[in-house]
Amino acid sequence: MTKINPKGLSGSTLKIIAVIAMVIDHIGLGIWYRLPELGYLVPETIDAETWWSVYRLMRNIGRTAFPIFCFLLVEGFFHTRSYAKYALRLFTFAFISQLPFRYALLDLAKGLNVFFTLFIGLVTIWVLAEVKIRWPKRFIYLPGWVLIITIACYLAYLLDTDYDYKGVLLIVVLYIFHKTRLIALISGYLSFKVAMYYSSAMSLSFLKYMGADYYFPGFILSYIYNGRRGLKTKYLFYLIYPVHLAIIYMIWNYLL
Q: Which phi and psi (to 5°) does residue 198 adopt?
């Protein structure tokens, strides 16, 4: 249950922190990572060690964003007046953002953008809520939940959305344990960490797993959410996401 605590961070503050972290992350991937292609990686300008250190720092800062967005999505689910409008808004911006996402991070980020992950996650917890209302007996709705969650995670994996099944699973866990925030965030972090480990092991890319702990600040910041909306930034993330990706693409083409 969300509690009002004026000493914590408002929803808008959390969102701004997440947006800044996300932009830094995408600049690191969309521009900084490509500097060697432009011939900037020479001792006279930037050495390889410095370049790589800055790159990893920017990407690690970016890890803060996703847990916050998932947390705020679940909070929004419990406060929205219309699940349908919420889902439609996510899907609309997922569609709008896809071309900027692919062009800005060309060959570096494949599949579908993160809005599709959030959309699938939202629809999943929406369906879970409806199932529980229609069939309130645990021995009926729990098996249904397992099936629904499995299908949703597989769909995200199949569509290769950003964070795929790991993101959907995090949203579901935050939803299930929503009444107790500390338990929700601890469970969310652990499930996400395990999913990251499994994903990295399957792809033989343990760099993904090694970076899993950099998501932890996002969970910590979510914990000190004060239950207040703060500034009216409803469309901040929706608009900034495609716009900043388009700007990154234009800067990259200018540097070329």
A: -60, -45
Cβ–Cβ under 8 Å, residues 165 and 195: yes
Q: Are 252 and 37 in contact (CB under 8 A)?
A: no
Axis crossing angle, helix 65-79 with helix 181-203, rounded to the nearest 10: 130
Percent of the chain whose predicted confidence (pLDDT) is above 70: 90
> E strands along the chain, which residues?
none
Coil/strand/helix, residue 158: helix
Alpha helices in 63-137 (DSSP H): 65-79, 83-104, 114-134
Element at 180 (helix H, strand E): none
Element (H, E) at 9: none
Please give the mean pLDDT across all residues of the chain. Answer: 89
The torsion defined by the Cα of 239, 172, 208 and 212, in degrees rounded to 10, comes to: 100
What predicted TM-score, i.e. pTM, was given to this entire model? 0.91
Say if residue 4's pLDDT is above 60. no
CA-to-CA distance for 206 and 225, rounded, in angstroms?
32
Residue with tokens 């579901």: 172
What span, in angstroms and rounded, lies between the C-alpha atoms of 69 and 57? 20
pLDDT value for 210: 46
CA angle 31-32-35, nearest 5°? 90
User: In a 3-state reduction of DSSP, which class is residue 34?
Assistant: helix
| Token couple for 210 | 């090694």
Rounded (10°) angle between helices 114-134 and 65-79 = 40
Cβ(195)–Cβ(160) below 8 Å: no
Backbone angles phi, psi at 212, to 5 degrees: -60, -35
Is the pLDDT confidence value at 247 over 70? yes
